Hints:
The structure holds 2 protein chains of 2 kinds. By secondary structure, chain A is mostly helical. In chain A, 75% of the residues lie in helices and 0% in strands. Chain A has one domain. The longest helix of chain B is centred in the C-terminal third of the chain and has 16 residues, at 458-473. The radius of gyration of chain B is 25 Å and the shape is globular. Chain B has helices at 15-19, 63-70, 93-98, 116-121, 134-147, 163-175, 196-208, 220-226, 249-257, 317-324, 350-356, 365-369, 376-381, 398-411, 428-441, 458-473, 485-491, 514-522, and strands at 25-34, 37-47, 52-57, 78-83, 86-88, 101-104, 181-185, 212-216, 229-234, 237-243, 276-286, 292-302, 305-310, 332-337, 358-361, 391-392, 395-396, 446-450, 477-481, 494-499, 502-508. By secondary structure, chain B is α/β, with parallel strands linked by helices. The two termini of chain B are 37 Å apart. Chain B folds into 4 domains: 9-100 and 179-257, 3-Layer(aba) Sandwich (Rossmann fold); 110-176, no CATH class; 276-357 and 444-522, Rossmann fold; 372-442, no CATH class. A 6-stranded mixed sheet of chain B has the order 6-7-8-3-9-10, with helices on both faces. In chain B, strands 15-18-19-13-20-21 form a 6-stranded mixed sheet, sandwiched between helices.
Amino acid sequence: MNAAVVRRDVFWGLVILLAVAVIPGLCILAAGKSPFAAYAALFGYTLVTGNGFAEVVVRAIPLTLMALGVVAAFRTGIFNIGGDGQLITGAIIAVTLSPWLGRLPAPMGLMAFLLVGFLGGGALGAFVGWLRARFDANEIIVTIMLNYVALQFLTWLIRGPLQEPMHIFPRSFAIASSLELPLLIGGTRVHAGLIVALAAALIMYLILRHTAFGFRMVTVGENRAAAPFAGINDRRTIVLAMLLSGGLAGLAGAVEIAGLHHKLQDDFAAGYGLAAIAVALMARLRPVGVPFTALLFGVFYIGVGALQRQAGIPFPIVWIIEGVVILAFLAYGALIRRNLAHS
Amino acid sequence: MISRPSVKASENRPAAEFAAGRPLLAVRGVTKVFGATVASDAVDLEVWPGEIVGILGENGAGKSTLMNMIAGLIAPDAGEIVLDGEGVVFASPRDAAAAGIGMVHQHFKLIGSLTVAENIALGDPRWGRGVLRFEPLRREVGALAAALGMAVDFDRRVDELAVGEQQRVEILKVLSRRPRLLILDEPTAVLTQDERPGLFRMMAELAARGTAVIIISHKLEDILETCKRVVVMRGGRVVDAAPVSGRSRADLVRMIVGENLPNVSRGAKADAPSAPLMTVEALTIGRPNGTRAVEGASFTLMFREILGLCGVDGNGQSELIHALSGMLRPLSGRVVYHLEGAPAGAWLDAAALRRLGLCHIPEDRHRHGILSGFPLTANYLLTHLGLRDFNRSGWLRQRTIRSRVTEAVAAFEVKAAGPQAIMSHLSGGNQQKLVLARELAAAPRIVIAAHPTRGLDIRTIAFVKQQLLRMREGGAGILLLSADLADIWEIADRVVVMTNGRLRGPVAVADTTLQEVGHWMTTQ
């Protein structure tokens, strides 16, 4: 890469940064508030205060796991939009089996709980992968529809078979305390799911970069037609990649239950699925980048509250900021690629 | 061979030529180079109003490149294109269309979800900008279609039409702009036998009205039935041009393959009775549309031989190759691979065959052979994932892969920045060299090579042939599909010929002639 290319990249990077700061600022100005006060509230609470940052980390844990699932699917050329459904399925199956898992000796029970969550989400993902591989079913539509199925199933379960013993609140019984993920930092909600998420990122990196399975995945993603010519079973690769992808979402569900909620309830992880796609794309589908972009999105999620409380700014403004950041990032990626093509 | 005029050609012409009128199109010394390949080498061509000219030539002879330059799709590196006595430079196909040149491509550029009328209106400002006026379009284009004897239903969606009908829409779309020169690229490739006369009638009708028509075709009948004059291209050059009348198919074959072919004497083979490697028994292969691509093909590939598979494109060779390499399950018949560990009777897929020692150089490199966005290492690893040196119980050994690719790049003289260079940054010839290096590295027993030299320069072609001969000396059996008869003649021991899904041969190269094989290739 020569100096001119570097200069051009830096130039565009600065332009993009400026756009990210100025465009939402204008919106805030239009709403009659001070942009500086807003940014101070948004970043002050989430990045400077201990409590705020702890909440950002708590939010980044499921986002990281689900975004890694998105990476697994997208790198294989499969557009898995069903992270939400797979997360719910993993959590449902883990909680359903928790009365039995709770009787296992302490660390074994927790590990089995997380594994069951992974397998539950993975089974749903693998089913979608099989439909895609066998019948060429459009995985985007299938996964979106399954999201609704899983959500309605959860709604019914926590008002029916899995409802808490008193049958008053729409939520399930609590899992045994031996199945809970321990807190990492006292006084906060940061739990050991953080270690699970970081380990998952490392494992995904190793799979994609250093294993034959990962190579098959990215090969199918890059050129599915070439895979069978080379002796790679593209269908099996798609099913396994979707097992991994759905499994990571299911693991996120089990981690949320074991680390945070300890029971199933309505919208216990609402809307993470789409955010996870943005997290994965911003990380350029690289596992190592995912925890960092997940943190950034955690800042947005947690910053909403601070923005409303401290600056009196209606929360939709934060979605404008989020949207501008995503678009700016994608635009920057496209600009750099174009520059590469021209150089 | 050609002296490039420094003065504009139209000013430099003898008066006698003006007396006879002047050509509608004159191409002079047009040259186009892609990487190391000269796709068009100082080509001269003249086309007169009302004339139908056929362009013949093997794949990669430069026909499409020449036509694409005339139609403004690519810009020539040198030479000039003269239209009606005026030198023209087209920046885009739109410019060429405005100047009266229309081209119907082999792959249609229609939008399936739109109606016929909408497709014709697309991108043509005469039918309105923003709001389309379909009434005048129906009137004018309808009248044009009627005059040419074509039936057209403007309201049908294009994806509901048969391929032949789609082609008529594509032709009408081009004709609606009233071109003075119509270029048809392999128009009969997608037509059934019954649909061809309609196309030919339309061409004759257009020519009678003064439109010049250029038709590219692999099918000699097309040329014999429609053209006044034929131009033969080989290796980017025009090697022959002559009136068609009075010529036979054999004459055309001779013009395509040339008289002065390298006559390699094969001599008597020392290792006479060799063992069979692959026995093909009564193989019948279907196409997705229900027709049969290959009908009852039987032959045997022997140990230590190169078996040439000849045929005009689209006669079933691709399907045969796909079936033999485990990509396509045949309808009936069977293939016996005489390889160690091969289970008898069962159909084997590509993965199993590769493990047994069969390698396959695919016909469509971009679609089936490479990962264009990935580095050379990944492209090399692609077919060697099962190799223990590279893959230790699921873990890739990057350093070994890198060093092996570095060796292969050096041995096959692949011009690349290094083993981590991105495949798409390489020229086509260098990509093909890497594919060859990869496929031949595993010391295969059976090599299925489909057009391994297509699009390569002469030096590389010689290199590829040498590699194939080297594999043969090592005892491999090679099935070589090539559109270039000369290639097959130079290195093959025996040939089989495919026409319309039926196989003829095998026959030893020493026992036949190029002319005979060329005749078989074109006899229905």
